[in-house]
Every structure is written in C-alpha cells, then in structure tokens.
Hints:
Distance between the termini: 103 Å
Helix content: under 10%
Largest sheet: 2 strands, antiparallel
Structural class: mainly beta
Radius of gyration: 29 Å
Strand content: 15-25%
Order of helices and strands: EEEEEEEEEEEEEE
Shape: rod-shaped
Strand order of the largest sheet: 1-2
Amino acid sequence: NNGTELPFAGNCIADSHCSNDFRCRIPNRVCVECLTTDHCGTDQVCDTTDYTCQECAFDTDCPSAKPKCDPTSRTCKECYQNSHCSSGKVCDTFIDYTCQQCASNSNCAAPTASCLPLSRTCVQCFDNANCTTGQTCDLSTNKCFECNYLDSDCPGTKPYCKSDDRLCYED
C-alpha cells in the first residue's frame, strides 16, 4: 500500500478524499455533491435521490409563482402537465411551462380554431391560411372576412368591398 489507495470498496472515508468540494457519503463510500441542503448554493436544495444540488426536489421547494417541481429537470415551473392548470387552460411545454388558453391549434375549436402564437389565445385566424378559400384575415381582429376593406380583395365577379360587413358585392 503506497498510502494513496483506500483499503475498501468505494473512493472515500472522509470529505477530504473528495475533490471539488464534494462530500463523502459514508454508507456507500462515494463522493457526492451534497448530503444536505447546507452544502448547496443559494436557491438550491440537496436532492437526496442522487445527492446533487438542484433548484427543487419536491413541489414544496418551489415558490408560489412556480409551484411545481418538474421531476425531469428538477426546476420550478408554473406547470409541466395540463393537470396543473385551471379548467380550460393547458400547460405550454413548448415555450415556458405556463398555463395558457392554447399551446397549439389542437387546443382550439371552431369557430376560433387557431392558436395565436404570441398571446397563446384561440382566434379565428392569424393569417390568410387560417381562413376558408376566398377570405382574408384581419390581423387587428383576428377574424376572417371576404374582404379587408379593399376592392382588390374581391373576385372579378363581385369586385366591390362593402366596409360595414366586409363582404364582396357586384355593385
């Protein structure tokens, strides 16, 4: 024995045998990041499932604004599944893990079957592709009309746009 080998399975019997400020977990004789939350930085807890410092290990570790601890990332979020949201809302796991009216078109139904990306609300349209053929989308109201105040929106058979109902007429 040259003094550097340890006479047992594992790699430590004291914290001094661990590098990077790790701690020696005696029962297993392995170096770990933490044994208690005191060993972690500010706003972190020691997750004793794997003895690592994380933002959270349980929901109780999270603030009220982000009350759910995501077990995969071990970070606090408003939600990470739809059941965390109030009725009529879904968890937007694509952007920021918040409860919204919609996260995709599949969360919306006619007549407001399109999910407006920025506000994440269900609207009739946010571009002409959301309207039926021959209609245009008014981006200020997110509604489909035959014409958007312009005669040029109307077909040759009904070339005039009537501004009050936004329908195309012959004359």
